[in-house]
Amino acid sequence: MLSFRLKRFLLFFLPLVLITTAISMNLYYTNVEEDQQRLQSKQLSMITYQKESVEQAMNAFMSELMVLSSHHILKVWLATGDANQLKVLADEFLAFSEHKGIYDQARLLDHNGNEVVRVNWNHGNPEMVATAKLQNKSDRYYFDEVLSLSEGEFYLSPLDLNIENGKVEEPLNPTIRMATPVFDDSGNKRGFVLLNMSGAVLLKQIEHLASGHAGKMLFINADGYWMKGLDAKDEWGFMFPERSEATFQHRFPQAAKMLMANEGGSLLIDSGLFSYAKVAAHPILEGHSIRASAKVKPWWIVSFVSPEALDMVSKVARERYILFNVIFALLFAIGSWIGADSMNRHHLAERQLMASERRFRSVTETAKDAIIISDCDGNVISWNSGAAFIFGYAEAEMLEQPITLIMPERYRDMHTQGIEHYKQNGFPSLLDKTMELHGLRKDGAEIDIRFSLSTWGSEGEHFYGAIIHDITETKKLERQLEAMASKDGLTGLYNRATFDSRIIEEISRAKRYKQPISLMFLDIDYFKKVNDNYGHAAGDACLVGFADLMLKMTRTVDVVARYGGEEFVVILPHTDSNNAYILAERLREAAEKMTTDYHDEVISWTVSIGLASLDHNWDVSIESWLERADAALYKAKDSGRNRVVINQEEHA
After folding, report:
1. CA distance 525 to 318
2. Which residue among the candidates 566, 585, 592, 649 is catalytic per the annotation?
3. Which residue of 141, 196, 303, 395 is most buried, as measured by CB atoms within 10 A?
C-alpha cells in the first residue's frame, strides 16, 4: 500500500509528468515519422538512380557490342581472310578495351568455338592474347545458344563468376557475357563477337551511387542469391554448393515475399527498412531481340537499413526529448516531494511503525527456527510458529510465561544470574554469541539446540530476542558418524584405530597417578575350523556373541576392542595382575560354557588369553607392553589353548 506522503506526491507529480510526457511523446513520434519518411524518400530516389544506371550500362553494353560486330575491318576480314586485316582488327579490339575500361574480355570466335581474337583487361593493363594461348569455348554453356542466333539477335548470359580452365577464377570475377553472330556478305554465319563486361565495375557503380546514404546496398538475382550482400562469404551462392542456402529469402523471409511480388517500393518491418526496385537484366533497345531465357531472370537492387541504423536516425530526437522529460520530471518531483513531505511526517512515522511490525510478524511466522522475545524479567511476549513446532507449546500457552519453561533445570539458575547481570551492567554475557545447549520440550524430552541472543531497548524498556535452531537430528548424525569412525562394524566394539589412541591415554594416566594397569589379549581357539565347517556367517555370529560376553563382564572404564580377525584386546585401568587374572579366568570359563546357535547348529568354542600388567614399573614403551601380552597369548595357545597365561616380566 502506498504511503500517505507518496500518495500526496503522486497526486501532484503524476498528472504533471503524464501531461509533459504525452506532449513530448507526440512531438517525438511526429518527428520520427517525418525522419523515416524523408529517409524512405531518399532511399527510393537513390534506388531509382541505381536502376537507371544499370539499365544505361546494359544498353551501352549492347550498343558497344553492335559497334564491334559491325566494324568495317571485321567485314573486310570476313570477306578476304587477310591475316593483316585480322591483326588490324585485333588492334581495334585492344584500343576498344583500353578506351572503355569495363570489359574483362573482348573476343571474336569462329563458328566452331575457337577464339580468333581475344583481348584481356588484365587488371587495367589490356593485352592481346597470343595465338598459341587462344582457347576453344565450345564446351561453355553459352556456346550452343550463341550458335543458334540469327542476324540481329543477341545472347546475354546471367551475371555470374568467370570460369577459366574449368574453375572459378580467383580472385572472384563477376561477369556478364553478351554475344551476337557475324555474317559475311554472302549471309554465311562465320562466328560471333563476345564481350565479357566486368560485374565488379557494375556493382561498384551502384555502390558509388549509394555512398553517403544510410542504407546498405544489396544486389540479388531472381532466385534470391546475393551478388552483393551483407556478408561477402554469402555471395554467389549459386556458384558454390556449400553456399546454396545463403539467399535473401533465407535471411529475410518476410521481406522477400513482398519484394519478389512487386516491381519496386519501400517496406518497413521489424527486420528493417527495405527500399527496392526490379531491374531488367537485359538491354532494352528497339529493333533488337534478346534470347527469352535471359529476359525472365531480373535483378533486384535493394537498400537495406537495419533496425540499429533506423534507431540511430531517431537517436538525436529521442535524446532531446528524453532530456526534456528528465529535466521537467526532476523539477516536478522536487516540488511535489517538498509539498508532500510537509504534510506527511507524522503520518509516515505511524505507518512505518505498523509496516515494521507486519514485516517482523511475517518473518517470524514463516521461519522454521524458533524466534522468541521476552521482556526484561524473562517473560515471553512473542512466540512464533517455529517455537511452537520445536518445543510443543502453543503461543497461547507461552505468552506471559517465564522463558525457563523451555530450559532444563540445570540451566535455570544460570539464566536468572544472566538476567541480573544485564540489569546491573547493561550488557548480557551471552550477547552476540552462538551457543549449543539443550532445550526442554513440553513432553519433558530434552533436545539439542543452537541459539543466539540479542537485546534492545524501547521507551525505557529492555527486551531479549533469541533465535533457536533445533539441531537434535544433526547431533544424532554426528554421534552416529563418530561411532562409525571409532567402532568395529561387526561387533560394535572399539576398532583398532580407537584402541591405538586409547592405550596412549590410559598408560599416560596410569603413569601420572601411579596406578596399576593390565592388558589382555584374547583369541578364539580354532576359529578357522568354525569358518570352514559352518561358514563365515557362523563365524561372524561367534565373534558377535563373544563381544557381547566381554562387554557384560567388563567395566565401563575398561577399553574393549577388536584387534583383528578373531583377536580381541582389553585395557584394564586400576587393575593389577592378580585381579586381571581373576577376570581373565572368568571370561575363559564363560566362553567355554557359551554356545552359538546358527541355522540349527550349536557351535561351541573356547578362548586363549594372554595377560601383561604394569603394577610397579610404568616406564615401558607401549610396543613392549603389547609384545608381552601377545607373547603370553601365544604361550597359552602353544600350551594347549583354552587357558590364561600371564607374563610376569615387568621391566623398563
Report:
1. 98
2. 566
3. 303
